[in-house]
UniProtKB/TrEMBL annotation:
Bilayer-spanning residue ranges: 29-47, 54-73
Gene source species: Limimaricola variabilis
UniProt KW Nuclease keyword: no
Keyword list, A-Z: Hydrolase, Membrane, Transmembrane, Transmembrane helix
EC class of the enzyme, as a word: hydrolase
Lineage: Bacteria, Pseudomonadati, Pseudomonadota, Alphaproteobacteria, Rhodobacterales
One GO molecular-function entry: aspartic-type endopeptidase activity
Name recorded for this polypeptide: Prepilin peptidase CpaA
Keyword Membrane found: yes
Pfam families assigned: Peptidase_A24
Length: 151
């Protein structure tokens, strides 16, 4: 039951993978939809440790804002992590962080291979054209979808 908020946003995570790979953007509409799911779950009593979850979201937003200012992260990535982290049960935050790291490594390796095969300036997919940039939404979404199934 603790993972229900993450399960509910899984279709939104799939959409985020698509948009971030296709356009290198995470639309505010997706961020807002995840926030609304979180609000609904909070109002339904599915997140009894809401204070702790919100503090984690604020901390992630503060760190993300600093990374955005340094041009290490995109704005959509920062916003999505800030609204997604409160959906993660506090006891699972270390697992989520580990999964995020692992999916980032896997994503970088996968994307570097894809860019060699199907990327380049002629690709219609921004995520395959953008050398030196990584669509972090891919890893954020993958970690959020893997965590509830316990792999």
């Amino acid at each position: 039951m603790d993972d229900l908020p993450l399960i509910l946003v899984a279709p939104l995570m799939a959409a985020m993978i698509w948009t971030d790979l296709r356009h290198m953007r995470i639309p505010n509409l997706l961020v807002g939809a995840v926030a609304l799911v979180g609000l609904g779950c909070a109002l339904a009593g599915l997140m009894p440790d809401l204070g702790m979850r919100l503090m984690a979201g604020v901390a992630v937003f503060a760190v993300g804002l600093a990374l955005f200012a340094l041009r290490v992260m995109g704005g959509g990535d920062v916003k999505m992590l800030a609204v997604l982290v409160p959906l993660v049960p506090p006891v699972a935050l270390p697992s989520f962080a580990l999964l995020l790291s692992m999916t980032m490594l896997a994503g970088v390796l996968m994307l570097s291979g894809l860019r060699r095969v199907a990327g380049g300036p002629e690709s219609s997919w921004a995520g395959l054209r953008a050398q030196g940039r990584y669509p972090l939404g891919l890893s954020i979404a993958a970690a959020a979808m893997i965590l509830p199934i316990g792999i």
